[in-house]
Amino acid sequence: MELEYHPHLVPNIFLFADRRCYPDWKIQKATIDFHDLTFVVDGRAEYYINGKKYAVEAGDLIYVPGGSVREAHTFKDFPMHAYPFNFFWAEPHNEVLLPFGVVTKKAITKEILCYIREFNQVWMSKQPFYMIQARALFELILHRLLSGLHRRSAMPVDLRIKKLTSFISDHYSEAITINDLAERFNLHPVYLGKLFKLNTGSTYKEYLHRIRINNAEMLLSAGDFTVTEAAERCGFSDISYFSKVFKELKGYPPSAAKNANK
Length: 262
What we know:
It holds the Pfam family HTH_18. By secondary structure, the chain is of the alpha+beta class. It has helices at residues 110-125, 130-153, 159-171, 178-184, 189-200, 204-222, 227-233, 239-250, 254-259, and strands at residues 11-16, 19-20, 26-31, 35-42, 44-49, 52-57, 61-64, 69-74, 81-89, 103-104.
């Protein structure tokens, strides 16, 4: 999922409403420069996005990214009740799109609805620091939506690989080869390598490097370890190789992670 590679996204919400539409409610045709994420909880409406018609009803999620031409109307006999969130991503990330279609059917779970109602209370009460709490709740809503999308699209992970990755998390600093793991889990090394790549999208070596480097980065960021100490604690005996792998994965040398804490 492309959004995973944008860990610094910050949503700035400028409009939220408990929108209980009157019978002749409509949105006039216009091009928007913000992201519109609307949760429909009752009634019906029709949206026209870039000239294409979409029918929406209770349970649907509407996503209209910036740059889209948007218009909408509800139905007199079934006026829509919805919760729209209009927001910008903090610069320079506003062009990043959420991985949703214009309409996602049956996207609203009880958990998400509870978060929306809590958001509504926070937004309306405007207590001190309410924007921090509101942003946190909105990010929880996004997390639930994205996690659900990932679960639906991802292949179920083989139980053996779940056990193996759990073992790696506990023993990543040790000198463990794929042959060692194959013997431990009673699998042929070649078969295990293929099974691991199929379930994780990475080779065993790539996965182990990522776990080691992420932990090394945390040690360095804490400021209590030198680069050499962090490398050794995370399973690297060759400091030059550690630095090379670190920079390949993070885009900056380990010394930058160390210095960032000063």
